[in-house]
Amino acid sequence: MNFFNVPDEFKKNPELNEEDLNHLREWISKQPHLPIVTDELLVLFLHSCFYRLEPTKVTIESYFTLRTHSPELFTKRDTDVKSVLEAFKTISFSALPGSTPDGCKVIFIYAKRVEAELFVLSDFIKALSMVIDMLLMTSGTFNGLIIIYDMKGFSLSHVGRLGINMMKKYVYFLQDGLPARLQAIHTINTVPFIDMITSMTKPFMKKELSDKLYYHSAADSETIFDYIPKEIMPIEIGGSGQTLQNLSDDTFEKVKAMRKWFLEEENYRVDEQKRPGKPKTESDYFGVEGSFKTLNLD
């Protein structure tokens, strides 16, 4: 598996400089609770925050804290583990080849198996996190990340399997824990009960994230091409790219080839006992699950 290399990033990004990297290395050395952060990750963090140092530090802190306190999402990220394999068999993830005209990478997601009982939200998020990590480690920096969900086959039974606490972790992962610039999240074949899903996530979604959500109903299926060129989109949804089968198989093989990297990545976590001040717990970071139980889903 070919990972990106840091010297290429300096050629690609004039804003990237050694001085900022040194500043971050020094800052990390004074944070006893943080793990070692590789130069590859530092480059991704800096780029994702438009080379602003203070937001970069916040993102580094969020990234590692989120991964530490979400073991159900960020441990056993292993394609040899049955639950992970099942997630990839149930949900198709395709990292589309090429980019949009403005340099964004696209991940296309749809359900291969639509039975609600096969859908496990934590395994879905885990699989998506693996695909995003693969894309970042093989591509290096890119202008933005676009995620497209095809909601065909998604039913009210699926909504019943979402769970507020896990949805909250999902939102935090997307808005606070990505070393990438999240450009947009599109849903196509959007279900009529999408409002039920958004009302679950609204209480803890920042405006910056909610402004990036775009919904395309089945009747407006062509409107997605106003944002994403047909050339890179799958044939089955009216694009002129590859088949969904080819795209998802290729993506899965790339994730699988990174097995060793994923297993090693698990060691890079926050040591709460060494955190200056008070150690953080899961409820400090995500809030208490119980406080959302009376949420009105109307």
From TrEMBL:
Cellular component GO terms held in the UniProt record: membrane
Gene3D superfamilies linked to this entry: CRAL-TRIO lipid binding domain
Protein name (Swiss-Prot/TrEMBL): CRAL-TRIO domain-containing protein
PANTHER family: ALPHA-TOCOPHEROL TRANSFER PROTEIN-RELATED (PTHR10174), CRAL-TRIO DOMAIN-CONTAINING PROTEIN (PTHR10174:SF213)
Domain CRAL-TRIO residue range list: 81-245
Region of interest: Disordered: 272-298
One Gene Ontology molecular-function label: phosphatidylinositol bisphosphate binding
Superkingdom of this protein's organism: Eukaryota
Signal peptide (UniProt feature, chain positions): none
Bias (Basic and acidic residues) ranges: 272-283
